[in-house]
Write a structure and sequence with these properties.
Layout (H helix, E strand, L loop, with lengths): L1 E4 L3 E7 L14 E7 L1 H11 L4 E4 L1 E3 L2 H12 L8 E3 L5 E7 L5 E6 L8 H10 L5 E4 L5 H13 L3 E4 L19 E2 L3 H8 L4 H10 L4 E5 L5 E5 L3 E4 L12 H14 L4 H16 L11 H14 L9
Parallel strand pairs: 1-4, 1-9, 2-7, 5-6, 9-10, 10-11, 11-12
Antiparallel strand pairs: 2-3, 7-8, 12-13, 13-14
Bound molecules: alpha-D-ribofuranose.
The site of alpha-D-ribofuranose has 16 residues, from strand 2, helix 1, strand 8 and helix 7.
Length: 312
């Protein structure tokens, strides 16, 4: 089972040729609303790859909350434990997507900011050895740490996406309960305080993470620590919208572990899911299902772009 413990948002997306400068007004090329939130997105990707997936989090008692919950259920995510906050609104993310697909995101936490003891109790009731737990940092960081601690004690595999990185409070051993820490390269540099990515990964390992997987977008990923994979190249795809590509990566990696794939194959499947997500607009609506990932990898196998160490 995969559990995603984290944020649920409604994304308000504005497309533009480029982000405006300070004090500048520009005209958009289009907009959309679509369900998002790193916790919810990662759950959707895991469910789309056929892992039994439960989401633990909180929405507001409002139209956005009802819409995102309906969408999550339709994707096969078990939302039976998501709480409805009677006061706070559903979280919102304002997203600018530029012509090349790059995004800038501002999150308004709303109900995500109230995730706390009640959700930890729910998580506790679900944990058992073999569970894969997905964590992100759009809920209070103290709760994220506690979730990792309890999950680790119960024999679950803990995956942490340290985004948004500004939410983290770095103390010695802060990642001691994290099996896979998965920053993108900007987050790795910011958290470690160095521009050298190898040094950054070493610093993050020094803070307790067992394995650090650095996501480098079109430059691929590398993993260091208990599991090492020095250079996994990215699949070349046209970039329409990079929003949630990292979530797709994490959700697919978690699902692949849950389904019994070895780590090298899990990384390749995660790369494929992330690549496909980049080719479509939006967050959850852009995430591929199992058939698409398998077909994509088989096609790249034929062209020689993918050479698995193991069977897909
Ligand atoms: O990672 C992408 C997500 O970040 C968006 O869906 C948005 O809601 C923010 O949480």
């Amino acid at each position: 089972m995969v559990i995603s413990f984290g944020s649920i948002n409604m994304d308000l997306v504005v497309r533009c040729d480029r982000a405006p400068d300070q004090g500048e007004t520009i005209v958009s090329t289009g907009w959309l609303t679509n369900p998002g939130g790193k916790g919810a997105n990662q759950a959707v990707q895991a469910a789309r790859l056929r892992a039994e997936t439960v989401l633990v989090g909180r929405v507001g008692s409002d139209a956005f909350g009802r819409d995102v919950m309906n969408g999550l259920s339709a994707y096969g995510v078990d939302v039976g434990r998501v709480m409805v906050d009677p006061v706070l609104p559903t979280g919102v993310a304002c997203i600018l997507v530029e012509r090349g697909g790059e995004n800038r995101i501002v999150v308004v936490p709303g109900a995500n900011g109230a995730v706390g003891a009640a959700e930890l109790k729910t998580l506790d009731s679900l944990l058992q050895p073999g569970v894969v737990l997905l964590l992100q940092c759009e809920i209070p960081f103290g709760i994220v740490r506690e979730a990792a601690r309890v999950a680790h004690l119960r024999g679950a595999t803990v995956i942490l996406d340290p985004s948004p990185w500004g939410s983290l409070i770095l103390t010695p051993g802060v990642f001691a309960d994290v099996d896979y820490l998965m920053p993108n390269e900007g987050e790795a540099r910011a958290l470690a305080g160095t521009t050298d990515l190898n040094k950054a990964a070493a610093v993050l390992l020094g803070l307790g993470a067992r394995t650090v997987v650095v996501k480098r977008g079109e430059k691929g990923v590398f993993a260091v620590g208990a599991f090492e994979s020095p250079d996994v190249p990215a699949f070349s795809v046209p970039s329409v919208d990079t929003t949630a590509a990292g979530d797709s990566f994490q959700g697919a990696f978690a699902a692949s572990l849950d389904l019994g794939f070895d780590l090298d194959t899990a990384l390749c499947r995660a790369m494929a899911a992330g690549a496909l997500t980049v080719t479509r607009p939006g967050a959850q609506q852009s995430m591929p299902d199992e058939a698409e990932v398998t077909e994509f990898l088989e096609a790249r196998l034929r062209t020689g772009e993918y050479s698995p160490k193991q069977q897909i």
